[in-house]
Each structure stands twice: as C-alpha cells, then as structure tokens.
Specification:
The complex is a heterodimer of chains A (363) and B (321). Chain A folds into three domains: 39 residues; 64 residues; 220 residues, MetI-like fold (Orthogonal Bundle), CATH 1.10.3720.10. Chain A has 15 helices and eight strands. In chain A, the strands form two sheets. In chain A, strands 2, 3, 4, 5, 6 and 7 form a six-stranded antiparallel beta sheet that branches. A two-stranded antiparallel ribbon of chain A has the order 1-8. The N terminus of chain A is likely disordered. Chain B has a single domain, classed as MetI-like (MetI-like fold), CATH 1.10.3720.10. In chain B, 67% of the residues lie in helices and 0% in strands. The chains are: A alpha+beta (363), B mainly alpha (321). The interface between A and B is large, with 99 and 101 residues.
Chain lengths: 363, 321
C-alpha cells in the first residue's frame, strides 16, 4: 500500500502558493486510486460478465474460434443463387470494404460486393481477414431453461421453505436473545458460552443422527427437516440479536415494567421497535442461507424432484447440460437462480452489511 | 424462599409468592427454552448418538443388523490414512485446499479492506457492494459460473491466457488444476472477510497513526506497528471462521463431480465428499459417523492450537488498560 501515503503537508510554509498544486495533485491521486479500484472490481466480476453474455449465446456462438466475447453472429450476404456467404472486411485499393466471400482460396479469393452483386477478385489469404460481426442475442435460452429446469416450481418451493424458516428463525432468536440480554439467570454466562461453542461445531457430527431421526419419524421426503429445526433459535442469530439488544437503553424497559407490562409486551413494544436493523439483518441471513443451502435439501429431498429447491434443481440441471457445447444453458440457469437473492441484496444491502459487521466485530 | 407479603399494594399481582429474583429466573428460562429444547434435540442428543454409532456397523438399509464393532471403524480409518486410501486422500485434498485458500483469501480480504478504507477513494459504498456481491450468489450457481469461465476451450480465462501466449490449463478437467480452480472460486467469496476487516480498520484510533508519523514512521511502519496489532483480533476471528468453513466444504466439489468420486482423478475428493459417499451412497452410517468424529477432532485440535498461539500474536486493546 503506497497509495495511502499521499503527503498532505500540515506545515504552513508556502501555503498560499501551493494550494492549487496540492488540490490538483489530490484530485489526480483520487482519480488514479478510484480508477485502479474500478479496474480491480471489473476483473473481479469478470466471471459474472462471462455468465451474463454467455447465457445469451447458442452453441456455435460459444464455441466458434475468434468470435467476439459478446453474443454475435457473422453477417451473411444472400447471393442471387440463394446461397448465404459470410461477409468479411476486405482491405482494397478503395479502402476497407465489406465483401461476401464466394470462393475462398489461399492466395486469391473471389468476393461478392453486396451492394452491386458483382464478383471481385482479391489477392491474399482470406484467413487473415476478419468477418463482420453483429449482435445476435438468443433469448430462447431462457424459455428453454425455464421449462427444462422447471424454474417456477423450484422458485415456489424455495420461497415457501425460506419464508417459513425465516419466520421461525427470527421469532425464536428474538425470544432467546431477549432472555440472554435482559434476565438475571444463574449460570447464564455458562449457557451463553455453550451457545457460542455450538456455532463452531462441525455440522457433520450432528448430521447422521439427525438424518436417522428425521427418517424414523417419516419426515424425509418432506420439507419439515428444512423448516422445523429453525424454530429452535440458531446460535449465530441469537448472538447477533443479543449483542444488539444489549446496546439498547434499559430505562425504557424499566419504565414499561413499572407500568405493569409483561416481558412479552416489553419485548414486542419496546425492544423490537428499536432493534429493526438487527432483526432485518437476521431475517436476510436466514433467507439467504436457505436460498444457498445445498446439503440438507440434497439428502432430505432426494428422489422427490417435485419438492426440490433451487440449488438442488440447478445442480441436477448442470449435471445434465454442463458439457461445453451446451454450457450456455447452464449459464442461463445460474443467472435465473441468482436473480432473487442478488436483487434482494441490492435492495436491502445496508441492513445486511451492517449485520455482517455486528456479528463479526462486536464480540 | 422469601415470601413477600405486600398487603399495602393495590397493584401487586396476586400470585406474588415467589421472590422477584426467582420469578425473573423462571421467566428468563422460559425465553431461553426454544434454544434449549433445540440444543437438546438437535445438538446434544445427535452428538451422543453419533459418537455411539461410530462404534457400530449401522447400515441405513439394514438397521436390523446393528452390531457393536468396537474400534473397527476407527481402525479402518487409520489404515486408510496410512495406505493413502480415501481417508488419507480426502484429508490431503482438504488440507491442500486450506493451505492455498485460507492465506490467499485472508491476504486479499485485508488488501481490499485497506484499499476501500482509503480516504482518497471515491464511491466506497459502490465498491464495497461490488466486491461483496459474489457472496450473495448461491454456491451451486457460482460454481457453475466458474466451471464455464475456467473451461479450457470456451472459457474466458483460457482465452485471455492464450491471447498472452500463456498455456491455458483446462482447470476442472485436469487433476493438477482442479483444486487451484476451486481455490479461485473460494477466493471469489472474499467479501465477507473484507467487510469484517474493514469494520476492524475503521475502529483503529487515528491518534495511533499520528504517533507513528511523529516518530518518523512511513506507511509500512504504520501498517506493521499500528494496523496489524489493532486488527489482530479480527484476523484471529477470520482465521477461525476460515478453518470452520473448510471443514464444512462440500457443495462446490459436489457440483464439479456429482458422482462423489472427487474427479478429475480424485483431486477434489474433499473430506465431506468421502463422508457423503460412505453415508449416503453406501449407507454405511456407522463408519460415516466415525469419519464425522475424525473431522470434529481435527477442527478441535486446530481451534485449540489457534487459541493457544493467539496469546503471542493477538492483541486485545482492552487487556492493557
């Protein structure tokens, strides 16, 4: 990091004379640093640009050598004989002309002038010429994917699971966090430590007994294992909310308590209205978690395609269509699968990013 | 128990026979109960059961054959570790991935956080959002995007490398390059860590930087003697969550090879892929439980080591006051 060492001299010498020079230098550094960061961001997001552009291509557009990165096709000229000929940019004595290649040959080729329809002889290797590309977007990909991926069904399934789970996760975490933040309970610190430790527990050690248990009560092949456990307060969410509740002044609670309000009433009317940022963050966390979750739906919904979530459906789809000839379809499918979470993120990013920071730093 | 007789108070609720402290405890426990029930049902019981299962031959398709097998599962694990069977291979893949991805991600996260913390940078919220965005993309989708982007013939990275006359590997179909490909995909999720570092950097008191300046220290001195010690707790947290993250690594490897063999050439056979194969493809849930406990052991040892060494390099500003 050398760019942060911009000298801004605080000493008074030559102040009047160099103020302008300094302003200019400051502006240039600012421009340079911002340009540098912007190009870094562009490189960083290049895979997304790839996905976006590829999802509008077809198989030949994807695999043709030296084709542009955007969805393009070569222009053709249909000659009098009804045959289409590819148009190339040909350097001639009258400047570069767009001519259709009729008879290719290594040393000299015959071209057709699309304007006149007349033949033109050209000396040189036609392979050194570049064709004329024009934008050619394949929107069919999306209708193909919508049907093959069964997108509406996956969307509905994922939304139902995400909304019910989020409801349970938020309600339970708010109740438990309130318990940890506001009540004097003997041994509370010990319990809180247990809660923190469960965050670090590798999920594998719980997985198999949970699976066997859900199978024993007949819940495999249903959404219940993906929803019900979230009604029992996730440790991470409790931690985040408890940290936030602790920052709220107690005076308001105490005033409400003196007025005879029950704890539930205090939670609902005093705490929750003040804690919206944290509650929204937790809701978003759970919503995105569900949207991203793969392992649980994979094992609990296996063999039930009608119940599948977006990630499981997408993976299934990619296993069939990932071959490089039809990779454009999987890119279009990925684009569809990420639209909802990315759109919600852009709308609610302030609350979300704040939540990440609360949970990561304010320990 | 103290019984408070409050005859004078008109407002006092009738069943006021418990002490206030006890009433508060019971109410508090009532609020904790959802978590506590969940802890028992979904965490404590499964831990005990999975430890128990790891000493059995439990097979999901033939539960009637359940038999106590002592340390057989652990013995099999041990021999697969020694002769580089699936356990040895999968631990190796997971460790190699961790050794590449964790330092690279932490370094990049810190670098980006320092960059986005510059006073001179315009449009900080936009950049923060852009660098964070890949985190929001479902892992299955981002893996597919990178599968295409890294494709050896049609992928853009190959085309860029070829344009510079460099050899272009076919990443996910080449055993030597599949794991580095997954590392690139992992680094793409740098946003979370970047954000946490950024918050840490904003908490560093500016007086400290001025003190270094007065002492004639440059940018490096400021970073080395102020920034790094002040954000070391955040660094510690990020290392810890990285280790936990690697221990849970599954989805990306599964998308690369849904058959569960960690292809190409077993180069992406992560620990959890092997566990999934044993538990769900072969229904060997007793053995899979033993595998889960091996991972638990590895994580606990790594976490304890990290906490032990933290006294030497993590600086808590509160401790010295």
């Amino acid at each position: 990091m050398t760019r942060n060492t911009l000298p801004v001299p605080l000493t008074g010498s030559g102040r009047g004379r160099s103020t302008r020079a300094r302003t200019i230098r400051f502006g240039l550094s600012k421009l340079g640093l911002t340009m540098f960061t912007a190009s870094l961001a562009m490189i960083f997001l290049l895979p997304l640009v790839y996905m976006f552009l590829t999802s509008f291509k077809d198989s030949s557009q994807m695999t043709t050598l030296n084709a542009p990165l955007w969805p393009a096709s070569t222009n053709t000229y249909t000659a009098a004989d009804g045959q289409p000929y590819t148009i190339y940019q040909v350097p001639t004595a009258n400047g570069v002309q767009s001519l259709a290649l009729e008879k290719p040959s290594r040393t000299s080729s015959t071209f057709l002038d699309p304007k006149t329809g007349q033949e033109v002889e050209w000396q040189g290797n036609w392979r050194s010429l570049s064709p004329v590309w024009s934008l050619d977007i394949k929107l069919d990909n999306f209708s193909t994917v919508l049907t093959l991926l069964n997108f509406p069904l996956l969307l509905r399934n994922t939304l139902v699971i995400a909304i019910l789970g989020t409801l349970g996760a938020v309600t339970s975490a708010v109740l438990v966090a309130f318990g940890f933040a506001r009540f004097r309970i003997p041994g509370k610190d010990g319990l809180f430590l247990v809660l923190i430790m469960t965050i670090m527990l590798p999920f594998q050690v719980l997985l198999i007994p949970q699976y066997i248990g859900f199978k024993a009560v007949g819940w495999t092949g249903t959404w219940l294992p993906l929803i019900v456990p979230h009604f029992f307060a996730n440790a991470y969410n409790v931690f985040l909310l408890r940290q936030y509740f602790k920052t709220l002044p107690r005076e308001l609670d105490e005033a409400a308590q003196l007025d005879g309000a029950s704890p539930l009433r205090i939670l609902w009317s005093v705490i929750v209205p003040q804690a919206w940022p944290a509650i929204i963050a937790v809701s978003l966390f759970h919503f995105f978690f569900t949207w991203n979750d793969f392992f649980a739906p994979l094992i609990y919904l296996s063999g039930h395609k009608e119940l599948a979530t977006m990630t499981v459906g997408l993976q299934d789809f990619s296993a069939v269509y990932a071959g490089s000839g039809s990779g454009f379809l999987t890119q279009a499918a990925s684009l569809l699968a990420m639209i909802v979470p990315v759109a919600i993120f852009f709308v609610a990013q302030r609350a979300f990013l704040r939540g990440v920071i609360i949970s990561g730093v304010e320990k | 128990m103290v019984i408070v007789e409050d005859k004078d108070s008109v407002h006092a609720p009738p069943p006021r026979r418990m002490s206030l402290a006890r009433r508060e405890t019971l109410l508090g426990l009532a609020f904790l109960s959802p978590w506590f029930i969940g802890l028992v049902v979904f965490t404590a019981m499964p831990i005990v059961v999975s430890l128990g299962l790891s000493f059995t031959n439990f097979n999901l398709l033939h539960p009637e054959n359940l038999r106590f097998v002592g340390l057989d599962n652990y013995g099999r694990m041990w021999s697969e570790l020694l002769n580089n069977g699936d356990v040895g291979k999968s631990l190796g893949v997971t460790a190699r991935y961790a050794l590449m991805e964790v330092p690279l991600t932490i370094g990049l996260a810190l670098g980006l956080a320092l960059l986005l913390n510059q006073k001179l940078l315009a449009g900080k919220p936009v950049f923060r959002t852009l660098f964070f965005m890949p985190v929001m993309i479902p892992l299955v989708a981002s893996t597919i995007v990178w599968q295409g982007f890294l494709n050896g013939s049609t992928g853009w990275l190959a085309q860029i490398l070829k344009a510079f006359g460099l050899p272009a590997p076919s990443w996910f179909s080449d055993p030597a390059w599949a794991l580095p490909g997954l590392v690139l995909l992992g680094i793409w999720g740098v946003g979370n860590m970047m954000l946490i570092f950024l918050a840490g950097l904003q908490g560093v008191p500016t007086e400290l930087y001025e003190a270094v300046k007065v002492d004639g220290g440059g940018a490096w001195a400021r970073f080395r003697h102020v920034t790094l010690p002040m954000i070391s707790p955040v660094l510690f947290y990020n290392v810890l969550i990285s280790i936990i993250g690697v221990a849970q690594y599954f989805t990306q490897a599964y998308v690369i090879d849904p058959a569960g063999n960690g292809n190409p050439g077993g180069s992406t056979l992560f620990f959890n892929m092997n566990l999934y194969k044993e538990g769900w493809s072969y229904n060997n849930m007793g053995y899979a439980s033993a595998l889960a406990w091996l991972m638990m052991l590895v994580v606990v040892v790594a976490a304890i080591t990290l906490f032990r060494t933290s006294a030497r390099w993590v600086f808590y500003a509160g401790d010295t006051k």
